[in-house]
Specification:
It comes from Sphingobacterium bambusae. This protein is of the alpha/beta class. It is about 50% helix and about 15% strand.
Length: about 325
C-alpha cells in the first residue's frame, strides 16, 4: 500500500519556526510542508532564494514556492498537522479570521514557549477554550533545543508531549532526523508550563550576570529555580507522571539559563546592566517570552498561594521598576 502523504502547516517565520522548517525538510518521511509567513516581502524572498532574510538567514530551506502563503487560514485548512510557532503575544493576531471549524480533526502543535498575555492562559489551554480543540489533539513541543544549533545540525533533542501517545509519535515522526532525536511524554501541562517558567529563570540569571554575579551564584540560582518550577507544575497538575530532572524541565532550564543563544538571558543581562525594559526590547530583534510570562505567572502564584521568590524578583524588577541590585540581594538571602 502506498504511504499517505501528510500535510504539515507551519505558522510563524521567526528563528524557531525557521529551524523547524529545516527539521521538516531534512526528515525524509513522505509529507508536504505548508508555511505561513506574515510579511509579504519575506515571503517573496523565501520563494526566490530559499532563505529567511530576517532569521537564520544563512540556512538553506527545502521549501516549495507553491506551498508558501501569507494567509494563515489557508495553511490551517489544508494541513493535517498544524504547528503554531509565533511569539505568544502575536498568536491571536496570527489567527484572526480562523474559527473552530478550521481546526476540526487536525493535530495542533504548539511550539510556543509562552503565555497568551491578555488571556493568562498557556497556548494549549487557549486553543481548547477558544477553538474547542480536544486535549488529545493538542501536542506540546519542549526542549532543550536552540534554533541556532538546530540550524548548524548539532545533535539536539525535542520532547513531544501529548495525552495520546500515538499523536505524540505521529508528530515526532515528521520532526526527527539525523540530528534531531525525540522524547515522548504525556505531561502536557508540565512540559508547557516548564517551558514558560524556564524563560523567567533565564531572565533572572541574565539580570544577575549583568549585575556582576558569577558562576557560583548562578549554580545556586538554577538549582533553586528547578525546585521552584517543580512547586509550580505540581500545584497545577499533581497527578502527572513527570521527573523534574528530565530533559524537558531541567535540561531546557539549563540551556536557556546558560546558552549564548538565549534571548531571555540576553534580555535579563541588559536589564541587570541598567537598560530599561523599553530600551532592551528596542535593541533586541527577537521576543523575550520571559517578559510577558513574568506578569502571567504572578496570577498562578496568587491562585495557588505559592512561594516562588525567583519569579517574584523578576516581576518586581520588570513591572514594578524596583532596583535590580536591591531585589537580587533580597533574593540571595532566601536561596538555599
Amino acid at each position: 500500500m502506498e504511504e499517505t502523504e501528510q500535510k504539515i502547516g507551519m505558522l510563524g517565520s521567526g528563528s524557531w519556526a525557521t529551524a523547524m522548517i529545516k527539521m521538516l525538510g531534512d526528515n525524509h518521511e513522505k509529507k508536504q510542508v505548508l508555511w505561513w509567513i506574515r510579511k509579504e516581502e519575506d515571503l517573496a524572498y523565501v520563494k526566490t532564494y530559499k532563505h529567511n532574510p530576517t532569521y537564520l538567514s544563512a540556512v538553506e530551506l527545502r521549501v516549495d514556492a507553491d506551498h508558501l502563503f501569507s494567509d494563515a487560514r489557508t495553511v490551517i485548512k489544508q494541513s493535517d498537522i498544524v504547528i503554531l510557532n509565533t511569539p505568544s503575544a502575536y498568536l491571536k493576531d496570527a489567527l484572526k479570521g480562523v474559527d473552530a471549524a478550521d481546526f476540526k480533526g487536525k493535530l495542533v502543535v504548539t511550539a510556543i514557549k509562552g503565555i497568551i498575555p491578555d488571556e493568562n492562559l498557556i497556548v494549549g489551554e487557549y486553543l481548547s477554550k477558544i477553538y474547542q480543540i480536544p486535549l488529545a489533539n493538542i501536542i506540546v513541543i519542549g526542549g532543550p533545543c536552540h534554533a541556532e544549533e538546530v540550524s548548524a545540525e548539532k545533535l539536539s533533542y525535542l520532547t513531544i508531549a501529548a495525552k495520546d501517545t500515538a499523536n505524540a509519535e505521529r508528530v515526532a515522526s515528521v520532526l526527527r532526523n539525523r540530528y534531531i532525536n525525540t522524547i515522548l511524554s504525556t505531561d502536557v501541562y508540565g512540559v508547557e508550563y516548564g517551558a514558560v517558567l524556564k524563560n523567567i529563570y533565564a531572565l533572572a540569571g541574565g539580570i544577575c550576570h549583568g549585575l556582576g554575579f558569577g558562576d557560583n551564584f548562578m549554580a545556586v540560582l538554577v538549582s533553586n529555580a528547578i525546585r521552584e518550577m517543580e512547586t509550580c507544575v505540581m500545584a497545577i497538575d499533581p497527578e502527572a507522571n513527570r521527573d523534574i530532572n528530565a530533559s524537558a524541565y531541567l535540561g531546557d532550564l539549563l540551556v536557556t539559563a546558560y546558552s549564548q543563544f538565549s534571548r531571555n538571558r540576553t534580555f535579563g543581562h541588559m536589564i541587570g546592566k541598567g537598560y530599561t525594559v523599553q530600551s532592551a526590547q528596542l535593541e533586541m530583534n527577537m521576543v523575550a517570552e520571559g517578559y510577558y510570562a513574568s506578569a502571567c505567572i504572578q496570577n498562578i502564584i496568587q491562585r495557588y498561594n505559592l512561594e516562588m521568590p525567583i519569579c517574584n524578583m523578576v516581576y518586581q524588577i520588570l513591572y514594578n521598576k524596583q532596583p535590580a541590585n536591591v531585589e537580587v540581594n533580597t533574593l540571595a538571602s532566601k536561596l538555599t
